[in-house]
Amino acid sequence: MKLFSVEKPGVYTTYQDLGRTGYLKYGVPASGALDRFALQVGNILVGNPWNTAGLEITMQGPELVAEVDAVISITGADLSPMINGERIQMWKSLTIKKGQVLEFGRPRIGVRAYLTVDGGFEAEEYMGSKSVYEPAGLGRKLEAGDELHGNPKKQKTGIGLFHTEIPAYDRDAIVRVVKGPHDDKLSPEVLEQFFTNRHEVSPQSNRMGYRLVSDGIKTDHEGDILSDAVPLGGIQLPANGEPIILLADRQTTGGYVRIGTVIGPDLPLIAQLPPGGSVRFKEITVEEAQEIAIAQERDFRVWEKIVR
After folding, report:
1. CA distance linking residue 22 with residue 36, whole number of Å
2. Is 66 in contact with 96 (CB distance < 8 Å)?
3. Which of 3, 138, 189, 292 has the most CB atoms at less than 10 Å from its CB?
4. Which structural domain, as residue segments, surrounds residue 242?
5. Cα–Cα distance between 206 and 290 in angstroms, integer?
């Protein structure tokens, strides 16, 4: 069933779910939503499984004409979503009626919003995922004239998060990091600079990784190691002293020293930083990181029960 017609595609709008698994050994990135929290909550609000593909909308959103009545939710960045020119509430399920126009205005907070729809979007799967990864020809971004299809199930509306549960996407983020595995190759002075300095997001940042400008880090290493597998959220520290946070479209292996890894629940704070935004890192233990991840999973399951 045709859900929407695309009048304007936005700057960069793609289908993303939670990514493809099992293909890193073949050199295929996992891809998937950069703000996994926003996508999963959006799916919960419209009654979908957490991994259902939604639209990841970057900076400037699309203009979509509804072809049927559908239940939707907008989560993630506040890109001023509107229906027929009227602002709509985010982080809540609502109905868009046939003929109405969903569009976006000025970015207010964050850079990536997520549109989820009751029943999910129909899109081609590549290696078990609908996530677009254009460099390898796995899908493409939206274009004017596209049609978006799905199978709405008439989910109830008016379900949303309390304001205290909605992430605060700050231009100056503090994220938690588990140190290692190559911190032993760095001096205490370099480690101290990394964890105390403010790091600015470079314009040369994308879905593959965020490059940071870090005045003051004076590295004392060559930056290279034997290439090994790189994790989501891994922080490479090249010899130039400017860290790179590896994201969903990252390469599968890398040969730079990794000073630490951003914990999963904090990656959305990175994904929502605009160029010129900043980040500071706070070291925590593996056990603390696991407790935080378990607590977030517990929240998801509670919200899912409420919706059902």
Report:
1. 19
2. yes
3. 3
4. 172-296
5. 27
